[in-house]
Structure formats: C-alpha cells, structure tokens
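retry 2 of 3: previous attempt timed out while embedding zinc ion. Reduced batch size to 1 and resubmitted. Inputs unchanged:
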Amino acid sequence: SYGAFALDDEMAQTPENAYALLDKLWQPSLELAKKELEEMKAIKKAETGDDSFESWDWWYYAEKVRKQKYDLNEEMLRPYLSLDNVVQGIFQLSNRLWGITFRPVSVPVYHKECIAYEVLDKDNKHLGILYFDFFPRPGKQGGAWCGAYREERYEEGKRIAPVVTIVANVSRPATPNGVALLNLDETETLFHEFGHALHSLFSQVHYAGIGGVEQDFVELPSQLMENWAFEPDMLRMYAKHYQTGDPMPDDLIEKIQRSALFNQGFTTTELLAASLSDMDIHTITQYRPIDLNAFEKEMLNGKRGLIPQIEPRYRYPYFAHIFGGGYAAGYYSYIWAEVLDKDAYEAFVESGDIFDRTTAESYRKNILERGGSEGGMELYKKFRGHEPDIKPLMIKRGLIEIPADTAARPAPLDTAARNASIRRIIGQQ
Ligand SMILES: [Zn+2]
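retry 2 succeeded.
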C-alpha cells in the first residue's frame, strides 16, 4: 500500500505500528468525549428542555462548560505574558538546562522589525545565530515556523555554524507604551518554535545530507519545549506583570493547569479520527472506485463507533495535508511525536527536577546534536533508556488517571490537584 511505502523510512516503519498507537488511544478518547457530551447534554436540557444534541451544539456548550468549570479568561493572563517576558523566559530556561546564553547582535536583517542574537555555548563558544521576526504585517505569511538560512555542517574539520530564524505572527503591541501582550497559544507557539531552533543550533552533524530527521520525529524537540511553558515553576520565573512586575498569582497558575484538560476527549477524538481516515485511505491495496464519504462513515462511525456529534478534524474532500501537504499517510505523526515528547519530558520529571542538567545534557547529546545520523528510535532509546511509553501522553490528555506511585515523587505539578481535576472531568467524583 502507499502507507507501507511512505512509512518505510519513518520512525513508525509500518502502518501497523501507526495503527497500533491510534487504536490504543481511540477507545479511551471516545469514552472521555462521550462523558463530555453527557455533561453538555445536561446543560442543554436544563436550559432548553431539548434532549437532542448535534455536532454544531458542541462548541457552544463546551464554552459554557469552560466558564463553569475552569473560570479561565485568557485576557486575565495577557498582562503576565509580555513578549519580552516570554522570550526572556525561554532564554532563562535554556540557560538553566544547558548553560547557553543569548547576546543581541548586529547583523544584516531583511526587515527592520527582525532582531538577532548570537547563541553562545556554556563555554562561550559560538553555537549559531538566531533571528526573530515576531509580528504580522502586510505581505507576510501567516502562522509560525522555524527555518534556517544556513544549516550546520562541517567543512575541513571545522563546524560551520547554523543561522536560524523563528518567524511568528503574535499580537502586536496594543498597550500605550508599546508592550506586546501574548495569549497562551502564542506563548506556547514561541516555546514550540524555539525547540526546533535548538535542534538546529545544537546540531553537530558532519554531513548536511543527514541533518534532517524522520517526519514523525521532527516535532519531538519542538513539542518537548511546550511542556515547560506553563509549569508553575516556569511561570513564576517569567510570567511577571508588565506594569507592576508582580509574578502571576497562584490561582491563575492553577487555572491554567486545570484548564489543560478542557475538552480533551473531543480534541483527541477528532485528531485521531483524521489520523485514522488518512491511514485508512492509504492502506488500501487494490484500486476500486469508492464513495469517499460512505467509506469514511463506514470506517469511523461503523467500524470504530465514532459518535455523530464529533466530526473528524478533516474530511476527505478537504484534507489538504494528505494530498499536497506532505502528510499522506503521515497525519498520525502529530500524536506519534506527542507520545515521544510527553515521555521525554517524563525523564525530567522523574529526575525530581524539571530543570535537571544531567537529563538535559543527555537529551542534547543523544538527540539534539545528532540530526538524522541514526534512526529516531535508536536516538530516543539512547536518551531515555527504553522505547517511549504512551502513559504520560494519556495522563496529559486526561485519558487515564495518574498512577498512585507517581504521587510520591517530587513532581513540580500539584499531582493531587491534577488528579482531582481529572477525576472531576471523567466523572468519578
Ligand atoms: Zn513544529
């Protein structure tokens, strides 16, 4: 099948391996989504007396649940998430983990809003140059990404340092004194892109041709960085009020933590449904004309019991990723990489210190420096000592409870509170 062909040189190797992961997550996600549905049905019934619930009701009532249960208004957070604080927070995090520093540097820029830093290793050795281009402007592509003007390589035994850029479109300064205040999503995005940048900056690969990694591995470094973004200890470090300098109050920090579980059943199910659709269509081995919509319905709603209130995130006629987007038989890689990043982060948590330098050093040596010089699974096992475990991801998405033995470890998160909120959400309280 095309799927077998496409996955042959990816980390997953075969569609069966990708399916094994998707299938393992499917039932727990669906069960959680059904509980979310029941909760919302009850609200709708109480408000309108109407028993029915359609897919288009979902977000309307989900917002009510969000207000009732989590009471989190993102606008309350913005004053603590100034662009400058977030960037400095990322720099401080990198300094704590690897001892690297960032020095503003004057280099040619393609637009007056670009800024650049020289990135220095712990021994002050030059690692590379990092550009930032933060704000939207007419003619600029939307979204956020990380790229390289020059990739790292070696020439005659000498390292040619990478020149890396992070491009984003975060909120422009809206305050009178010109401070850009970000929301949670924008903050997380900067941590994400910075993870890609580190992958380039730390690279110690000798041949440019093996600098790249498998598609289902490439989001590990970026997604891993997201894990720190909203840790209480991290927020206390960088999330300071842009006017008063006060740290973010604990009740806001707790709200951020708890709301991470909001609507996770739905989010996971729609993501998995699209991943399955992609793999289903690409593992057909014999051509036969099919009715795509009927095929989707049969595979998702018929065979796998998807509830009609949830649509897959993408449906075949507009699933651009799997046509020209380079994600044909590759959409599973988002959740695949999330298994990796959640398990990798667990290594820091297990060490008893989310800023543990020994773990960070091993992660740098075994993964960030190595590019595609070995297969992703080999690199991963060298860092972690074992294959990635799916459990940390399931906990993070509220699909299982935190095992009792982890309550004893010196976790940076308030495990008891998180456990309680998971129980509340899955209705076991
Ligand atoms: Zn990415």
